[in-house]
Amino acid sequence: MSQDPWLQNYDATCRLVQEIAENIHERNRQQRTGGNPAKINMTLRASLQKLKQNINQLRESLLRASSSRRIMQSEADRRQNLVDDLVTRDKQLNATFKGDVTHPELSRSTLMPGAGGEGGASANPWLVNEPEETRGLGFSAIKQQQQRIVEVQDAGLDALAAVISRQKLMGQDIGNELDGQNEIIDDLTHLVDKTDDRIRNETRRVKLVETKSASCGMLVVIVLLLIAIVVVAVWPT
Fold it and tell me: Residue 219 in 3-state DSSP?
């Protein structure tokens, strides 16, 4: 089974770090012995630029893998620690190259994986932050572990999708019910408007009748008065 491309790029970057540290050591040796380090300085500048590009690529690739959940969170944290270590070593290498480090030999021993340390220990310093979950596991086992986690996450997402689907159906049913109730309310509003118009019409008719009735009553009174006046006028005294 082929190795993870991210880990392959990381290993290549580690080798580049070691190569740069060795070249800085050689450059410093030439300076001490009166040699001409111009050529090796050009190589170092190109290598340092390449190192920065590699670190950026590792960081971007890790971000994509973590966002898409192709790796589990513990592995993403482990790899982030490795990238942070590379960033620190990049700064140290640049400082050493520019002559900002007081003891370049000591800096070289800390920059080269497997170099220096008590008894010349060759333990890989890049894996000191490896989490307990993956420590001692091979790539295949780590991949299987990640696959199981992804399957669990997929099952959880499927369950969440089912819940959302049911909620969507409930929302549609509620919407349909509201539409029906709105139609009923519209019908009631129309009926109320018609009833109100009828009431206003009947009210106007009643007022008209009352007005006519009042007018008729006054006319009767006037006629009676006229008749009384005529009777009094013609009645013999």
Answer: helix
DSSP result, 149-211: HHHHHHHHHHHHHHHHHHHHHHHHHHHHHHHHHHHHHHHHHHHHHHHHHHHHHHHHHHHHHHH
Q: Based on the number of CB atoms within 10 Å of its own CB, is 27 exposed (0-12), middle (13-18) or buried (19 or more)?
A: buried
Nearest partner of 113 among 217, 29, 11, judged by Cα: 11
| Domain residue extents for the chain | 5-136
Residue 136 corresponds to which tokens in the numbers above? 């001692």
Please tell me the number of Cα atoms within 13 Å of 76 on its side-chain side: 15
Could you list the pLDDT tens digit for every one of the 237 residues in the chain? Answer: 567 899 999 999 999 999 999 999 999 888 888 888 888 999 999 999 999 999 999 999 999 988 888 889 999 999 999 999 999 999 999 999 887 544 444 444 444 444 444 333 333 444 444 555 555 556 566 667 677 777 777 777 777 787 787 788 878 888 888 887 888 888 778 778 878 788 888 888 888 877 766 777 777 778 788 887 877 777 665
